[in-house]
Design brief:
Elements (H helix, E strand, L loop, with lengths): L1 H16 L1 H8 L5 H15 L3 H12 L6 H15 L3 E7 L5 H15 L3 E7 L7 E5 L2 E4 L2 H15 L1
Parallel strand pairs: 1-2
Antiparallel strand pairs: 1-3, 3-4
Length: 158
């Protein structure tokens, strides 16, 4: 299961770093045959083999590549639960250091009561702070949200 998760994470990183690959999976212009050939070439070049490689090929053949990001997210949640972890999605205004990630994991562990696997994305539009989604809970400490709340409060007063 760890190899499959690592392979899917590698594919997800490739997807995030390539506008062409993103266009390939989202565009209805490409035939399933074109998508299958392209995904097979990408998977082979990236060393994504075995179960994850076969999965990507089948998804491409069935014209469901657009759903791969959601499938990877769902797989991560299932894998985390199997390991006795809970998953959290973290969006920050800047890249978190390893020490900051460890501190965040420890804080979330104290709240959740079990280990937490975090998935970090960077969104500079937040200006500062974090947005943490864990299960049905969301904690938004971003500067953007605080400024919008202040703006709304000032409109109500005036």
């Amino acid at each position: 299961m760890a190899k499959v998760e690592a392979d899917l994470t590698r594919f997800e990183a490739m997807l995030a770093g390539s506008a062409d690959l993103t266009r390939l999976i989202n565009s209805p212009v490409f035939t399933s045959e074109d998508q299958a050939k392209a995904i097979a070439a990408v998977a082979d070049k990236a060393g994504i083999t075995g179960l994850a490689g076969n999965f990507l090929r089948v998804v491409a053949q069935n014209r469901r590549l657009f759903a791969v990001p959601g499938m990877i997210k769902a797989f991560r949640q299932i894998a985390a639960e199997a390991r006795g972890e809970t998953a959290a999605e973290v969006t920050s205004a800047h890249e978190l250091t390893a020490a900051q990630q460890a501190e965040l994991k420890a804080a979330l562990k104290s709240v959740a009561g079990k280990d937490v696997a975090i998935s970090v994305t960077v969104d500079p539009s937040l200006l500062g702070g974090l947005v943490v989604k864990m299960g049905s809970r969301q904690i938004d400490t971003s500067l953007k949200t605080k400024l919008n709340s202040l703006k709304l409060a000032l409109k109500e007063v005036g």
